[in-house]
Amino acid sequence: TFVGAVDGFKGILYVTNGVDGQIFQKTGAGNFVAADVNSKFTEAETVVFYDARVWWGNTGTDYDRVYFSELLDGTDIPSTNYYSVPNPIRAMVPMRDSLAVHTLNGIFTFTPTGNISARYQREKVANIGTVSKRGVALLPGDVQLFIRREGIYAWAGEDAEKISGALDGGYWPHINKDRLIHSFALYYPEKD
Hints:
The protein is an all-beta fold. 0% of the residues lie in helices and 41% in strands. The chain has strands at 3-6, 12-16, 23-27, 33-34, 44-50, 53-59, 65-68, 82-84, 89-94, 99-103, 106-112, 120-126, 136-139, 143-148, 151-155, 161-162. Strand 6 and strand 7 form a beta hairpin.
């Protein structure tokens, strides 16, 4: 599976497979080609579109940085447009008012400030995050469900809460936890 983002202003689809991180892009009816998004990095494990910018996380050169493009131009990523978090980035999830960045040891939000010199406020909002690059489902109300080796968790702005306790006695001990990094989650509103 791939993770991807569409630059809503230029119509470019950026994708990465989240494993070896090579970045591809597609415009119009053309074929996918290797993306030339930044001379600083050529690989990223996750990409999203948020706040009229394309965001890249866990790049081949900086596992703990989130790079972001200039406003309205996903192809322009100055080398100073980044924020660091203290652990490797696992997933990024655009929400209504902020971008959530998951690491194994926490969730960080990046909230627009409206200030050109400090564009986003970074805040650690939870002490655990997902193990999977594609394993976060965003539900209505900005509730996120995500997977860890210990089970399934929900995060709604406060600290994350384990919601899969009923699986601990039977199902959960028998799954291959080493494969959880490859799991994915999808919110499908027409099913419970």
